[in-house]
Write a structure and sequence with these properties.
The chain is mostly helical. It is 49% helix and 0% strand. It contains 9 helices and no strands. α6 packs antiparallel against α7.
Length: 208
């Protein structure tokens, strides 16, 4: 008896269903009688459902099973289906490339949230509210910079980065002074630490 190695067997498109389900689908493809083919396809879907009981509560569970049936047949199965047959071109189409985050390209230490805040500020009308927001953003940028560099940073550096990240649309005056570094990096007190009361002294020694 010759041994059959997995490397020599047919590739399983959805391995979770096993080789026997794949063989049943291949047999169903070869059936010429349309009525018999439809019955077998329906039976295979029922077996697939029994093999995936944890998915029964998933919306469109039956639709998912029929889609997987056609996928495992390499879209060669021609049977009547209660749902629209999935299109191979749509399922195998490559997704569009996501735009690379602006902040990550050069100033990674600021993170993407800073860029989101800057983009939001650009939508605001000029006025005191917008100026306050821009100043807050600059302070947060300084805090991010200090967390990354653990050193002092001149406010002019932050102003320059703000100008660059906003494409020259947001700026602060050189007279503006951002928060001091020690205030931005001030550590939070330990909640579990309780300062001993001055009234508390040593407990008096009692004779037994």
């Amino acid at each position: 008896m010759d041994l059959e190695y997995n490397s020599e067997r047919e590739h399983l498109i959805i391995p979770e269903y096993g080789r026997h389900i794949q063989k049943l689908i291949n047999h169903c493809i070869a059936i010429e009688d349309k009525e018999e083919k439809n019955k077998m396809a329906t039976a295979i879907v029922k077996v697939m459902g029994n093999l995936q009981p944890h998915l029964r509560d998933v919306p469109d569970f039956q639709h998912k099973l029929w889609d997987q049936l056609f996928i495992m047949s390499d879209y060669k199965l021609e049977v009547d289906t209660p749902y629209s047959k999935p299109e191979k071109e749509l399922l195998q189409a490559k997704p569009e490339a996501l735009p690379y985050p602006k902040a990550s390209s050069k100033f990674k230490f600021y993170g993407n949230n800073i860029q989101i805040m800057i983009d939001t500020a650009l939508t605001w009308e000029d006025g005191e509210m917008k100026d306050a927001l821009v100043f807050t953003i600059a302070n947060h940028m300084k805090k991010c910079f200090l967390n990354w560099n653990k050193d002092t940073v001149d406010d002019e550096v932050i102003f320059k980065h703000l100008d660059e990240l906003s494409n020259g649309k947001l700026s602060l005056n050189s007279d503006d002074v951002l928060s001091d570094a020690k205030n931005l990096l001030r550590k939070k007190p330990n909640k579990n630490y309780q300062k001993p009361s001055q009234k508390q002294g040593k407990k008096p020694y009692r004779k037994r």
